[in-house]
Design a protein that fits this description.
This protein has about 260 residues and is mostly beta strands. The chain has helices at about 155-160, 170-180, and strands at about 15, 25-30, 35-40, 40-50, 50-55, 60-65, 70-75, 90, 100, 180-185, 190-195, 200-205, 210, 215, 220-230, 235-240, 245-250, 260-264. Bound molecules: zinc ion (ZN).
Length: about 260
């Protein structure tokens, strides 16, 4: 992923009005760290004949020669009210489903958390067909219903208790249909910022997935289980995202993937 979510083409841009983002990061050439400006302080950005850019804030104006500007990024931050994760986030979804702020095993929204084979509730050092817990006598996937939400195979239900569940594939579809998404990062962790119809946000870390003894795709893709089985091939549905977008689909149950619980 790019180091930030949105790079603006500066030349030719004369005036930008800004809404609901949290910070502007101004990257200057030969300067490793960006200048960070809280967005609520910014009134507007002006270019003077494409030679000088002025970021006008409530307390003053930051003037920078356009030739010295590497890029400008808008950074959105998901913040929780305190450190007692997981929090229940109401994104304003039609079903009323609330999503957790963090993954199972993570310390907060910016943590990758643990990887689980589908239906298992313990982490492993090796994720493969040969040590998947739920194979039948014919060495095929054991079938225990179309959906494991709320059962002893639901890692969210088992580890977090209460009303927490793995999301169903319908809840994942609802997230994709009704929320906006964009690549983002939180405290240096890459992932997907998801904004609900009511403006509330969750951050899905790009934790990749675990297969055999390796973790693939870390910082470049996210793989999150649903509780739902594909009835034709017995794979399990989940949410996938990378730099091209986000999708729902199904995949090998033995892979280690992230779990982001919901409360129905
Ligand atoms: Zn939280």
């Amino acid at each position: 992923m790019k180091r930030n979510i949105l790079l603006l083409v500066l030349l030719g841009l004369t005036c930008v009005f800004l809404y609901s983002q949290d910070f502007i990061l101004l990257y200057k050439q030969n300067l490793e760290l960006p200048i960070s400006i809280p967005l609520e302080d910014v009134e507007y950005i002006l270019h003077d004949n494409d030679t000088v850019q002025s970021i006008v804030t409530k307390t003053g104006t930051i003037e920078t020669p356009v030739s010295e500007i590497d890029s400008l990024a808008f950074v959105f931050i998901v913040s929780c009210p305190d450190d007692n994760h997981p929090h229940l986030i109401d994104l304003g979804l039609p079903s009323g489903t609330k999503w957790a702020c963090s993954n199972i095993g993570a310390d907060g929204p910016d943590g990758f958390g643990n990887y689980y084979s589908w239906g298992e509730t313990e982490v492993k050092s090796h994720y493969a067909w040969d040590n998947y817990a739920y194979l039948d006598e014919n060495d095929a996937y054991l079938h225990f219903g179309e959906d494991i939400a709320g059962t002893d195979f639901d890692v969210a239900h088992v580890l977090w208790g209460g009303a927490w569940r793995m999301p169903t594939v319908d809840q994942i579809k609802e997230l994709i249909v009704h929320c906006k998404h964009r690549q983002s990062s939180q405290n240096g962790v890459d992932g997907l910022l998801v904004t609900g119809p009511n403006g509330e946000r969750i951050f899905l870390a790009a934790a990749g997935f675990s297969r055999d003894d390796n973790i693939g795709g870390k910082s470049s893709c996210g793989n999150y289980w649903s509780s739902t089985v594909h009835i034709l091939n017995n794979d399990a549905f989940g949410l996938y995202f990378d730099s091209r977008g986000w999708y729902w689909g199904y995949s090998n149950r033995f892979d280690g993937r992230s779990v982001r619980p919901v409360c129905p």
